[in-house]
Amino acid sequence: MSNLQPVRGTHDLLPEECRRHRRIEEVALAAARRYGFGEILTPIFEFTEVFSRTLGETSDVVTKEMYTFTDRSGDSLTLRPEGTAGVARAFISNGLAQSLPLKLFYRGPMFRHERPQKGRLRQFHQVGVELLGVETPFADIEVIALAWRLLSDLGLAEMVKLEINSLGDADSRADYRAALTKYLSAYRGELSEDSQNRLDRNPLRVLDSKDEGDRRIVAGAPRLGEYLNEYSRTFFTTLTNGLDSLGIPYTISDGLVRGLDYYCHTVFEFTTTALGSQGTVLAGGRYDELIAQMGGQRTPGIGFAAGIERLAMLAGDPPDTVRPIAVVPMGEFGPAMVVAERIRRAGLVAELGYSGNMKKRMTRAVKLNARFAVILGEDEAARGAVTVRDLDAGTQEEVALSGLEERLLRQVEGETHG
Predict the structure, then answer these.
(1) For the chain (length 418 residues), average pLDDT per consecutive 10?
(2) Which residues carry a binding-site annotation for L-histidine?
(3) I want to staple 132 with a disulfide (CB 3.0 to 4.6 A). Which of 78, 102, 105, 240 is the partner?
(4) Where would I find the Aminoacyl-transfer RNA synthetases class-II family profile domain in this sequence (predicted)?
(5) How many domains, the chain?
(6) Residue where a domain terminates, one of 297, 315, 333
(7) Binding site: residue ranges?
């Protein structure tokens, strides 16, 4: 094959993009640890039932987007389209019910067969958290506060807007579903084909439709907030009061329902106008019945997921990492390799110039943004010394080889802490 390309909707993460992704992961993990979350890694594929039962047979993810295949044993397996169901399965499989409350952070690739567009790929990456075992809205407040902290630590607080809504409990949603179905049924013939199918299976999904005709109809539909019972209203009021007390700004969005069947009570999204039409960068909600639905004991939960690609696009290039020391051999390569290894064992980054004349090796050192160049010439080697060139100041000095690491460390640490 003469023209090898990645599969549509996937792409290679080259070093600079990896650096941006790694920063998102590291900032997210640091924020999660500050809130007491431990890390969990689940397999990238599960038995298909893990997702088809939890995401809802009528969801777009299950009906249109999952990568499902049969393995050699005849089992139906699916590449994970999202993280929550896998974490819930792991909770049941590992008997973690005795460890509640449980705070878990995850990261890794997800897979959905959808139309590739800016910031949305068929293999994409997420960070996310799940807080299991707490029924009260204070868990919701803490999870949203963590999301706000993560975005703030990335410097994105001024670029995003928090939207929240309440889906209420099962009783509230049943009352609302009946009212919504009655309203939408009067417009059945005018709804898109997808929405007509959703009307029979899960009418709340119609509220999520992107079809312009559907949107006009939905604009006049009854609002879910009008059907919340007293418990659900009190739950939501406690949530908003808690966000107010923490100084986290938000907007109540009646149309926010989220796309998956397992949500109840709190749903939320952080959106931005900086990425065009695909404006959601972090989203989540509460799912009190999910684990029971999967066969475990009833365990309330709340969590969120954020797309690393979109966060990286917003956050831009991370601050410069530790600048390397360029080791430039002017004679035999072996002694330079030994010096480079000594510098690395001292805790610094060393880059070896493998080939080329002095000019080419120094040009490469500048391109690497090296802080110093350690030049090993034959005359200096005979005296047990090297030349250390300060690439910022343009000055250089001869340094005894025996004191090289100490000299470099003193300079680098002084600049780091200065």
Answers:
(1) 79 91 96 97 95 67 80 95 95 94 97 78 95 97 98 95 93 88 89 85 80 87 90 96 97 78 89 80 94 93 96 86 87 86 92 82 88 87 88 90 89 71
(2) 82-84, 112, 126, 130, 258, 262-263
(3) 102
(4) 1-324
(5) 2
(6) 315
(7) 82-84, 112, 126, 130, 258, 262-263
